[in-house]
Structure formats: structure tokens, C-alpha cells
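Researcher: I'd like a candidate sequence for this fold, 286 residues long. If you have to choose between options at a position, lean toward the conservative one.
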């Protein structure tokens, strides 16, 4: 005979009876005022947060300006018809590596260039003029180390070969011109760009042969008859030229004109802020 096993312990029924109160001293209630930070503490937290955001933004801006891209304003007409006074341009900082002139302030402890890359003939570059003053200029590289550069009869010769010149429509300069001629100049590499000559000027049209030393470049303005560049020594009677440009002075390659103001515009004249050359917005530089 089979029997069913039964539990010897009876089930304990569920109960809704309240638990017995704990013995001992009653717990003190938390004060709402003590749990909330004071106004002074909140202000300090907000201030620390704001300062942190500002410092982080400054660090990012300095890194971008030093390593990637930097804006410049064109100060002179020496690069017409490709860059005009009032152009607000962007330069790429990484193309040639970095030097003591790459950060926002000059760091003399940096010697030469870090991650140096040789520039290419035809590049439009911004460079530091050297010396204690924080002055910059923009020109086109026409000679790299070892090149022989000469101007003869107003034409550029590089390593004994004359560049190819083709006439273009008349220049659209912002000044009253005498006789401006725009030509397309083509290097032996096939790279082309526009230059501008002025029949009222003749300085720099005849030069000796310059041999570009190591660690230097030969630069010229596209406005050939109105540019103090490597054709002229710093003590030239025509005005302070550049001579051979040290490679460490390069700051970057010009890639674009972001926007451009017409002559007479000024940040101190709000009514001129929209006096813009609209056709030069996001204008590529070749």
C-alpha cells in the first residue's frame, strides 16, 4: 500500500500585521536646509565650470591655430591679382611642419622645423619677417634650395629655363592703374597662376642669377613690379626686401580667401562692415 508523504511542519500563513517597532533611540530626521548647497557654493561651482569651459576652449583654439589652420589679413597689394588688400585668408599650418613661429607667440627655444616638408614651387605662403616685431607677409615660392633664379627682361628664369607667359584680360585692380597687364605664368612643372605687371615700374625686371642656399627659399610677389621680395636685400635702396627666406620662417600655405573687404572698410567703422567683395567669398588660391 502506498501512502502520500505530508509535511510535519505546518505552513506559516502570510500576515499584514505591522512589524514591531525597533528598540532604542528614534532616528533623527535630516534637515532639508542642511542637504541643499548654499547660494555661495552654487556660485563657486558655476564659476569653476565656466572657467573650465573657457580654458578648454582656449586650449583647443591654440592647438588648432598652431597645428592646423590660421587666419590672416592681406596687408599689401604685392600679391595682386590673386590676393587683394582686405582679403581674409586661411593658411594650412601642417604643410611644411612647425617652427618657432607656429605658435601664437614666438618660441625661440625651437630650432629649425619639426616634421619639416619641402615647399613646392608655386605655393603661396605666409611667413614671419623675423626680428622682434610680429610682422608677416605673403608671397609665392618660385625657387627651392639649390635652384638658380633670375629675372631677365621681365621674365622669370628657373634653372636656366624661362617660364611660359600667356596674356590674359586686363587686371581688375582696386587702384587707379597706369598700364596693368595680367599674364598666366606657367612653371616648368606645369603649374600655372596669374601675375600682374605695371608699365609704370621697372624695378626688379633685371637681376643677377641667385642660387638659393640650403634651408632657404626664393619668393616673389605676383604683382611683379610692386613687390619687395627675394629680388631685393633687406637694405635695398628701393626699400626693405626679403632676400633669401629662411625655411624656419614659413608659417603655412595659403589655401583660401574666406571673405574680403573693399578699401576703406574698417572694424572701427560699423557702416562699412558689409562693404564686401562678395565674389571672393571661399575663393581658392592657386
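Model: Candidate sequence:
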Amino acid at each position: 500500500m502506498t501512502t502520500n508523504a505530508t509535511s510535519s511542519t505546518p505552513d506559516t500563513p502570510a500576515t499584514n500585521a505591522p512589524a514591531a517597532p525597533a528598540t532604542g533611540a528614534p532616528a533623527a530626521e535630516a534637515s532639508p536646509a542642511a542637504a541643499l548647497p548654499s547660494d555661495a557654493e552654487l556660485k563657486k561651482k558655476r564659476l569653476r565650470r565656466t572657467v573650465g569651459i573657457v580654458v578648454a576652449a582656449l586650449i583647443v583654439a591654440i592647438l588648432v591655430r598652431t597645428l592646423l589652420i590660421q587666419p590672416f589679413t592681406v596687408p599689401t597689394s604685392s600679391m595682386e591679382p590673386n590676393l587683394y588688400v582686405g582679403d581674409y585668408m586661411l593658411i594650412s599650418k601642417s604643410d611644411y611642419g612647425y617652427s618657432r613661429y607656429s605658435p601664437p607667440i614666438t618660441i625661440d627655444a625651437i630650432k629649425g622645423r619639426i616634421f619639416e616638408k619641402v615647399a613646392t614651387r608655386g605655393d603661396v605662403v605666409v611667413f614671419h619677417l623675423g626680428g622682434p616685431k610680429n610682422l608677416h607677409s605673403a608671397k609665392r615660392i618660385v625657387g627651392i634650395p639649390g635652384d638658380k633664379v633670375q629675372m631677365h627682361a621681365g621674365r622669370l628664369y628657373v634653372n636656366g629655363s624661362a617660364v611660359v607667359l600667356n596674356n590674359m584680360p586686363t587686371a581688375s585692380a582696386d587702384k587707379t592703374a597706369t598700364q596693368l597687364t595680367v599674364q598666366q605664368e606657367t612653371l616648368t612643372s606645369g603649374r600655372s597662376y596669374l601675375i600682374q605687371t605695371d608699365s609704370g615700374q621697372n624695378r626688379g625686371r633685371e637681376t643677377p642669377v641667385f642660387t638659393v642656399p640650403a634651408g632657404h627659399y626664393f619668393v616673389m610677389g605676383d604683382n611683379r613690379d610692386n613687390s619687395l621680395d627675394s629680388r631685393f636685400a633687406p637694405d635695398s635702396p628701393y626699400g626693405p626686401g626679403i632676400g633669401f627666406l629662411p625655411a624656419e620662417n614659413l608659417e603655412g600655405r595659403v589655401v583660401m580667401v574666406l571673405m574680403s573687404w573693399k578699401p576703406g572698410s574698417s572694424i572701427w567703422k560699423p557702416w562699412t562692415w558689409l562693404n564686401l567683395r562678395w565674389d571672393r567669398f571661399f575663393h581658392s588660391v592657386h
